[in-house]
UniProtKB/TrEMBL annotation:
This is Phosphohydrolase. One of its GO terms (molecular function) is hydrolase activity. SUPFAM superfamilies: HD-domain/PDEase-like (SSF109604). It comes from the Bacteria.
Length: 185
């Protein structure tokens, strides 16, 4: 089964009002804030789309509120990919797939990064395998789309501000549609 733009809208309409893992924003607000940060940074449209959709796996794989508090890694970075692959290219999908490992990498290469993580991000970091070794960080950085994943990760971390004003879901679904595989949207 693949998701259409209408299916993605339905997921956000149905589950977007749920709290985002102990943060002061909802799932939808977090997605819109990440996409806004990407757009405002001048990111290419595929990365803006990835920023909107990076946590779609949480909406597809319902694990309740704050699964990390119960020791659950929901593997959300992988969960949505089979549903999105017919619709989107690797320029969108790979930053989504890599955004968790990007956190692990940033903890290894940026001495100040770990201190910026929210309590839930620290909990999930442990469940996701912890900080990369120097060798693992270098291997990550050599992957295609690693730089986009690092940028997405930083926007992900900043997209947790209660009351931040963003463009609408319609606006960003338009961006997703603009980068969709021809005929798939």
């Amino acid at each position: 089964m693949s998701l259409s733009i209408a299916d993605i809208r339905h997921l956000f309409d149905q589950f977007g009002a749920r709290a985002y893992s102990g943060e002061p924003v909802t799932q939808l607000q977090h997605a819109l804030q990440a996409a806004t940060l990407a757009q405002d940074s001048g990111a290419h449209p595929e990365l803006v789309a990835a920023s909107l959709l990076h946590d779609l796996g949480h909406l597809l794989n319902q694990q309740g509120e704050t699964p990390t508090a119960r020791g659950i890694d929901d593997l959300h970075q992988y969960y949505a990919l089979p549903f999105l692959r017919p619709l989107l290219t690797d320029a969108v999908l790979e930053p989504i797939r890599l955004h968790v490992d990007a956190k692990r990498c940033l903890c290894a290469i940026d001495p100040d990064y770990h201190a910026t993580l929210s309590p839930d991000s620290v909990r999930s970091l442990r469940l996701q395998g912890g900080v990369f070794s120097d060798e693992a960080a270098q291997a990550f950085l050599a992957k295609p789309h690693a730089e986009d994943a690092l940028a997405l990760r930083r926007w992900d971390d900043q997209a947790k501000v209660a009351g931040r004003v963003t463009p609408s879901l319609d606006h960003f679904l338009g961006v997703v549609a603009s980068v969709a595989v021809a005929g798939a949207a």
